[in-house]
Amino acid sequence: MPNSRVLFLLFGILSACASLPAQDSPKPLLRVHAHNDYEHKRPLFDALDHGFCSVEADIYLVDGQLLVAHQRNQVKPERTLQKLYLDPLRQRVRKNGGRVYAGGPEVVLLIDLKTDWKIIYPVLRETLAGYADMLTVCRGDVTETNAVLAIITGNRSRNMFTGESVRYAAYDGDLEDLDSSAPASQIPWISSNWGRTFHWRGVGTIPTEEQKKLKEIVGKAHGQGRRVRFWGAPDFPEFWRELLSDGVDLINTDDLDGAQRFLSQ
Fold first, then answer.
1. Looking at residues 3-25, what average pLDDT do you find?
2. DSSP letter, residue 133
3. Residue 246 to residues 9, 210, 213, 255: CA-CA distances in angstroms?
């Protein structure tokens, strides 16, 4: 058979395969958050391979670079926010027709500021502006929903947004922000340290008074259009099951495999 004929057939086969939908594409999971995602072997990609729709990156400002690490002495110049998260997210969004998961929901990138916000936020804002094509952006009172919602947590303040007519990120609220008049577009999440409010650690039945308090928090947040997440909490199925049954929106977990199995059941 002539070489040209062989090449023609191979091209046809490859084209047909490329047009087929991925058979192993995970189902997007809206109820889980990949805590300290950057500590996994493949930051971002391990979470996406498990269907997670929320990932967390801690960042420090070092020599003008936004570096991802849990502790300041762990930073490495090659592990930038852009390289580990923003660039691969944009590449994936472009590949999947404008979404992180083809036809899927908005995905959250939770950015934990480890440097004083007065110093790091201006650099972060300028960086995020360069990715506005994939980010949910607020222009005045109008929210333009997109593939990725950046939410800022850690050493943050709502004063970061003062004077901004265009905002490229939202704010991760505390329980106290349930008494705020800020719109859900600015504070879409309420996050809290579990141990700050509750004593139950997932063993046995949750005390009635604690369950009542939990449902009150969730109900108030949902009434304002906000989601609820607890960190510093037990990380195993019995605890997750109680949280979900009481309406908590996001399981904060380090266990990608376990959470995916749990939710698939």
1. 45
2. T
3. 57, 11, 10, 21
Q: How many CB atoms lie within 10 A of CB 214?
A: 22
In this structure, are strands 32-34 and 166-167 parallel, antiparallel, or unpaired?
unpaired
Nearest to 125 by CA among 166, 173, 84: 166
Residue pair 149/167 in contact by the 8 Å Cβ criterion: no
Q: Helix (H) and strand (E) counts for the chain?
A: 9, 12
Judged against a pLDDT cut of 70, whether residue 57 lies above it is answered with: yes
What domains are there in the chain, each with its CATH number? 23-264 (3.20.20.190)
Tokens representing 182 are 């800020």
Q: Tell me: the pLDDT tens digits for 134-161?
A: 999 999 989 999 999 999 999 999 999 9
pLDDT in tens, 73-101: 999 999 999 999 999 999 999 999 999 99
How many residues belong to the chain? 265
Q: Is there a contact between 89 and 148 (Cβ–Cβ < 8 Å)?
A: yes
